[in-house]
Amino acid sequence: MSFQSRIFTNLPRRLRPLIAAIACLALPAHAGDLVTQAKLWLDGQVPTLAGDVEIAVGEPDSRLALAECSRMEPFIPPNARLWGKSHVGVRCTQGATWTAYVPIQVRVFALSPVATRPLARGEILGPADYRLERIELTLWPLGELAAPERIDGRIATRSIAMAEPIRRGHLKLLPLINPGDAVKVVIETPTFQITTEGKALTTGGSGEGVQVSLATGKTVWGTANQGKVVTIR
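Above: the chain sequence. Below: its structure as tokens.
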């Protein structure tokens, strides 16, 4: 890994401007300016990421030939995230008109649930079925891993190997309502409430959507609740 690609965010804060300035000496002038701007901007973004964060900043395209710029502004490109391999954009806002991109890699480490034993599809998970381990969250899409508070009482939708990180898609809620169940349908508006009867057409756990056929023959969607109640707002 080149000097410019080394981990920047673990350096003492007081040394970061100095290191960034030195980095410019190892690159052509404009490329070094881009790296400096990207690093200083990323330093301010680290507190917004939960967990232990490491950010490696790469080198921009060596073929870049940019006009002199008095003021640069870093930014995150549309649809980009500070997660895994990405880019930071740097645009010139004074003295010239150009935009360039600096490659980065963001790694986030935090405690996340992993299975303590092989889990079979259909099992209801409890506290003994998982433990928290420090893993790299950025190996998965943002938000894919399950939060600890959303595991207990859920059903495994597939087999999960021992020590495998538990993902949100591996779990589903215990059904409160099953197809064919008689349900009470509560239709709520800001000014009144109507209660009627219906029959469930789909399965629904607490807070999940469920399809219901009303006595009138009309089909509606509502939210499943305890006591086989479906709420429509």
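The chain has three domains: 3-108, 109-172, 175-232.
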